[in-house]
Structure formats: structure tokens, C-alpha cells
User: Which sequence fits this backbone?
């Protein structure tokens, strides 16, 4: 709302310490991508989206690899072609946001990984430029974790870890492996299962089994009962490909699926929703829980014919959300849909309108000056984002300091996220949920429990952009078992 600038100053003057504590600076995540680019068009699509967020993620490597769909001949030239296209629009991206690296910086990070297929290309003397880049990044004296997004086969990472274990002490190898955060778009050769078996402490996110079991398919799978327009061919043509500059023109048509690899990095974007170290909290890239997946029936394979081996230890994998969309009305606040959706795909597609609108806005940044483009709102809290209350207490939730860099009016939507917290029962928010200031009554608990509340703040620009703040409330039992008053 255009009057929020004055309100923000007033809030800061009164409650500066609490405000500052509730709005920390977000640290950029480090990322290396392994891509079987040219095996399917969606890798190129995902790479274009990733480059539009190159100011908010520290890209440290773009490595062309093989997979079940491309068993030889990695294609780094396609990565170079897309990065060169990015270079044509990077100056205009900088007019909209700081921090975009030059094309030359990114071109220096492109390498080829293992030239052959699977674990047959891993072992002594089989190092590649890609596996060497991974090792250099892992050994860099940077305290941040190193994320590896695997869009194809994982054997380049397997080679890097083979060399690491062969050339370092067990303690040093363990220290470096502990820095890795791996997200694989299903298993696309036999190396993923081997990595999880050989490196029992390796942080690993993957949907095991056939692609139909993949949470990542929620990125663009049409869902019966909702509007799927933002992942249609028509939407892609109008909002990305046509009339949106040289980078948009490089975005290929959908072949099998749209951007199946994108969920691997969506949770690294600082939208205010996800916390990468906590996949169980959820975000644009999905929500994942750590457990040992049950074995699939004998003889079943990963899509492409890769044998399925039982998992030997807990991994981060599919989690289910129950999601009831809100539906806009003509004359009143949004209301709950009549249908609730459940399953692992829901953890990705429930955010679809937000991440697709964000993509449309970013591609517009490649051609428009700041004054003609839309930029995401700035959700802020009038209190800390970690609260402690007792059973029965009133939990005050206040996002009134939020603002928008373009002066756009803002909409608010508060909701509880029970799947992300220890208290799994719904905690109703005091209606109406679309005010910047609301609250909820803490449930009566017998032991300490956590409840997550999220506010989605959406501007009224074109396209409408959404950012979030999450409030985690610890609820303690009341002394004597009695609830406190409001």
C-alpha cells in the first residue's frame, strides 16, 4: 500500500530492536549444477530461470554430464550458448537489481563432467574437469554449505568423492562431505544409489523410484481441480519466449515436461519461505522429510530402466502436504476452496502461481528499466520471527511494516503450516486471515511444541509478486496445566 512508507518509519522508531531481530540479512547459498543438457529441453529452461536468480545464488559451477537419457557426449556448448545469451541482458538485469555476475564470470565456471555412463565411468584415473571443479569448490575455505543440484546423472559427483576419499584422510574426507547438500532430480543412473550407500552421512534429497513418484513433477504437472494456466504452452509463449528479449527467445518449447529440474534450486531463492537447511519446512521447491523409504516391489525400476536398490539409511525424500487453495471473490476476502489436495506433488505446485509470476517478472527485467518493471514486495514483521508462548496464550501476528519498492498496494494472507512443525493439528488463525495484523490462540500442549505461521505478501503490480515471512512459535505447557489468559 502506498502509505506504508510512513507507517514503516513510525514502527521502526518505536520498535527498532525487535524489528531488526525479525528481519535478518539472508546469506546467499552456494550452488553447482550437474546437467545432462540436450538430453531434454527442460534443462535449458531451468538454466535460464537459474540465471535470472544469479544475483541471489552464488553459482560456482555449471557442469555438463551424462544420464540414462544421454549416456555419452556431455554438451557444455549448450550451457555456453545460454550463458552468452544471458550476457546480452545482464546490463539490463543490473538496472533492476544489483549483484548479477558478468557472462565472463559464469563462462569460466562451465566444465564437462564424466564423459561416460554411470558408475562404470568412476574410479582411479577417471577424473574430469567437472569433478575437479567440484573438489576445488568443496575445499574452498568457505563456511557455507555447498549445494549440488543434479539434473542428470550423479557420476561426476561420485568421481569427485571417490578421489576425495582416495587422497584425503578419513577425518578430512568426512569434514568435506559434511559440507555437501545434494538434491537429485530422481536417479538418472546407478551412481545416486551408490553415493547414498557409500557415504552414509551425505545430505541427500531425492524422490526414489519412478518419475511418477517425484515431488519435482509438481512443477508443471496439470492438476485436476485447479487453474493450470501458468504452466501452459500459451502462458510460456506470452510471458517468456516472445517479446522478452534474447534470453527469453532461447527458452525452448516444452518437450516432455516444463522445467523438471527447477525444484532443485527453488528453495535456495530467498523468498522468505524456505530455509535450505530445513527441507522439512517446505518452500517453492517442495517439502521433504528424513526417513528410510519403503522398498518398491521387486522388479520395479526407475524410469529409464535403472534398477531400484533398497535404501540403506534415512534420506530426505517425499513428504505430503494437505493444501486447500484460497479462491478470490468479487466483493469480499478470498475464501477456502471446497477441495483439499494431498500428496508430495502438492508441496511444489501449491506455490506455482507465485514462482511462475516471479519468472515472468524476472524475464521482464531483461528488457525493461526499473520504473517499468515489477519487483517483489518486502515482507517485514513488527515482532521477532521466533516467539515463545504458553498453552492458551494469544499469539499476535503482525506484518504491518511490510512495504513495496515500486509503491504498489499489498495483499496479505496468513496461514498455518502444520506439516512443517511438531504440532500437527490445525491451529486456526483468527479471521479474516487477509489482514496484515491478526493472531491465533495457542493450543493446549502437554510438552513443548512448535507451530509455524506464514504470511504471504503479494503486490498488485504486473505480474503480481509474492514474498513471505515465517513465524515459528514454541508453545510451552502452562504451569499447573491451566491456560493463560489473552
Assistant:
Amino acid at each position: 500500500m502506498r502509505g506504508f512508507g510512513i507507517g514503516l518509519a513510525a514502527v521502526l522508531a518505536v520498535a527498532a530492536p525487535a524489528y531488526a531481530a525479525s528481519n535478518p540479512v539472508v546469506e546467499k547459498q552456494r550452488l553447482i549444477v550437474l546437467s545432462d543438457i540436450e538430453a531434454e529441453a527442460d534443462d535449458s529452461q531451468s538454466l535460464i530461470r537459474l540465471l535470472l536468480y544469479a544475483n541471489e545464488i552464488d553459482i560456482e559451477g555449471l557442469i555438463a554430464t551424462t544420464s540414462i537419457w544421454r549416456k555419452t557426449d556431455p554438451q557444455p556448448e549448450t550451457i555456453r550458448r545460454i550463458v552468452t545469451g544471458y550476457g546480452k541482458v545482464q546490463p539490463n538485469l543490473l538496472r533492476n537489481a544489483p549483484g548479477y555476475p558478468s557472462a565472463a564470470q559464469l563462462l569460466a565456471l562451465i566444465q564437462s563432467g564424466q564423459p561416460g555412463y554411470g558408475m562404470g565411468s568412476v574410479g582411479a584415473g577417471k577424473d574430469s574437469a567437472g569433478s575437479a571443479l567440484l573438489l576445488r569448490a568443496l575445499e574452498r575455505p568457505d563456511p557455507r554449505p555447498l549445494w549440488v543440484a543434479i539434473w542428470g546423472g550423479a557420476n561426476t559427483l561420485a568421481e569427485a568423492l571417490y578421489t576425495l576419499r582416495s587422497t584425503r584422510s578419513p577425518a578430512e574426507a568426512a569434514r568435506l562431505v559434511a559440507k555437501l547438500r545434494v538434491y537429485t532430480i530422481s536417479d538418472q543412473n546407478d551412481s545416486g544409489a551408490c553415493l547414498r550407500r557409500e557415504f552414509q552421512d551425505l545430505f541427500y534429497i531425492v524422490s526414489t523410484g519412478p518419475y511418477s513418484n517425484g515431488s519435482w513433477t509438481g512443477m508443471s504437472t496439470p492438476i485436476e481441480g485447479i487453474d493450470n494456466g501458468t504452466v501452459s504452452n500459451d502462458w510460456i509463449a506470452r510471458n517468456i519466449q516472445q517479446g522478452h528479449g534474447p534470453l527469453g527467445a532461447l527458452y525452448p518449447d516444452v518437450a516432455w515436461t516444463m522445467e523438471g529440474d527447477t525444484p532443485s534450486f527453488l528453495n535456495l531463492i530467498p523468498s522468505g519461505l524456505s530455509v535450505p537447511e530445513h527441507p522439512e519446512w517446505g518452500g517453492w521447491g517442495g517439502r521433504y522429510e528424513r526417513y528410510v523409504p519403503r522398498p518398491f516391489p521387486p522388479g520395479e525400476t526407475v524410469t529409464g530402466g535403472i534398477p531400484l536398490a533398497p535404501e540403506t539409511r534415512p534420506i530426505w525424500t517425499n513428504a505430503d502436504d494437505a493444501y486447500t487453495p484460497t479462491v478470490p471473490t468479487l466483493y469480499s476476502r478470498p475464501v477456502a476452496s471446497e477441495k483439499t489436495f494431498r500428496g508430495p506433488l502438492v508441496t511444489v505446485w501449491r506455490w506455482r502461481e507465485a514462482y511462475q509470476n516471479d519468472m515472468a517478472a524476472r524475464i521482464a527485467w531483461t528488457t525493461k528499466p526499473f520504473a517499468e518493471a515489477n519487483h517483489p514486495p518486502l515482507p517485514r514483521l513488527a515482532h521477532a520471527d521466533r516467539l515463545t508462548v504458553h498453552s492458551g496464550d494469544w499469539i499476535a501476528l503482525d506484518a504491518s511494516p511490510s512495504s513495496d519498492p515500486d509503491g504498489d498496494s499489498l495483499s496479505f494472507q496468513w496461514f498455518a503450516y502444520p506439516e512443517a512443525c511438531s504440532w500437527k493439528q490445525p491451529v486456526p488463525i483468527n479471521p479474516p486471515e487477509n489482514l496484515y495484523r491478526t493472531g491465533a490462540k495457542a493450543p493446549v500442549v502437554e510438552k513443548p511444541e512448535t507451530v509455524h505461521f506464514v504470511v504471504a505478501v503479494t503486490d498488485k503490480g504486473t505480474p503480481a509478486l509474492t514474498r513471505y515471512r515465517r513465524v515459528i512459535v514454541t508453545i510451552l505447557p502452562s504451569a499447573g496445566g491451566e491456560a493463560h489468559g489473552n
